[in-house]
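Incident log, structure service

09:12 report received: a user says their structure output differs between two submissions of the same chain.
09:20 pulled the input from the user's history:
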Amino acid sequence: MKAMKNTPKVKMGIVAVSRDCFPAELARTRLRKVVAECRKLKLPVVPCKTVIETEGDALTALAEMTEKGVNAVAIYLGNFGPEGPTTIFAQHFDGPFMLVGAAEESKDLLIQGRGDAFCGMLNSCLNVGLRNLRGYIPPVPIGLSDHVAEQIAHFVDVARVVIGVRNLKVMSFGPRPQDFYACNAPIKPLYDLGVEVMENSELDLLELYKSVAGETRKINAIARDMARELGAGNAYPEKLSQLAQFELTLKMFFEENLGARQFGVYANKCWPSFEFSFGFVPCFINSRLATRGIPVACEVDIYGALSEYMAQLASVHPVTILDVNNTVPDDIEIKDLKGAAREDLFMGFHCGNTPSCCLCEGYCMRFQLIMNRIMEDPDKEPDITCGTLEGTFRPGPATVFRVQADLNTGGIMSYVADGHVLDADPASFGGIGVIGIKGFARFYRYAMLGKCFPHHTALAFKHSGRILYDAAKLLGIEDVQAPLPASCMYPGENPFST
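09:34 re-ran on a clean worker, output below:
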């Protein structure tokens, strides 16, 4: 697998705070213990030399963290902490922050060494709310040094997603295909998240494609790399030059158009006019860019591209975008459902855009069967519909995730569910796999259908639900749906249903 680029690097800082009626040395000592526990986890953290007791200290600490390149920070209540200076630091810090605090270590320290961070956390959170700030607070925010270090390690993953989204540009080409209302993309909720959007015509893409035709050396090098990747699955070698030219086009556009943003993704038109104009389907190129950390959402699904990118940042691994596509017939043998019921299975499918590193051996470049039916003579060899990467998803832990504009509120909503790609033969075509999620049948009916989510979902090839849920909340997405246990009812679920 190629090294993934287009991903933020989190430089994690930790700043201790101390209320003036408590000894500052208590906060310093406890901070040193947390840093030592972080080192045991091989988690590099940058401790702040300044302990925040006053507003002046807050500004000094801010300057220190900024100078050291820190872009995410843990604010550590080594004791009760001064809620004003604490939240002033958080307000002016340019990056995600978390609040954690120190638990009492021993009954022997409850006279001179008591910190009262349990109490201080309440006041700090109140002040965060007063300033309309949004920080991450762990489920158990007060703990001993080893517990705090573990919470910081989780926050690094959450911060990676948040930093990436706030510095992201979604670049799109073309309007969505006819009648694909599922891929509508209201822009304001994206701006509210901090995402920039650059919309372009598919004619712009065609002209760009033509303009790089003379870059023969670069095109040939990409084509050779494609042939190496496909190996025995290179069923249409005559198409590689065209596909390589298209990959070069998207790479060059990406590099030249990030502008003020650090990271980017694509949401591109891929049918039906694309094939007649370009002479191929772009799926294989989409898979290759996703392998390198640049997801490309099909059918101009801008929210799908954002969902893919967030799933990539959470899993630190290439991802794909799928249709939540079809049911799984009972005669498909599956030995291990990984805790799901048979009714909780579905097939995730797309034409052939999944990275090869996420597919089982035997993947192959083929033609898009559905498009071939309507675009080409069935009695002739496929031509303009060639270019998919077909194969079965590798079995293992997986997470489905989607961010979408809320039709009712004009805001934004999300869902996330952990499950597994099951070890099963889908007996079908495209990039495809059988996915099992415990409780998915009810989740599909009352969360996905009930909240009007579209048919596309991002698929991470690792369990990433905990990170994505926390990151979505930290980004301000209040409505995050997740599968509920049988004992809990979804809104609108009939209590008399069996």
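09:41 both user submissions now match this output. Likely a transient worker issue. Closing.
09:42 reviewer note: Residues 74 and 152 are 7 Å apart (CA to CA). The chain has two domains: 12-165, 167-481.
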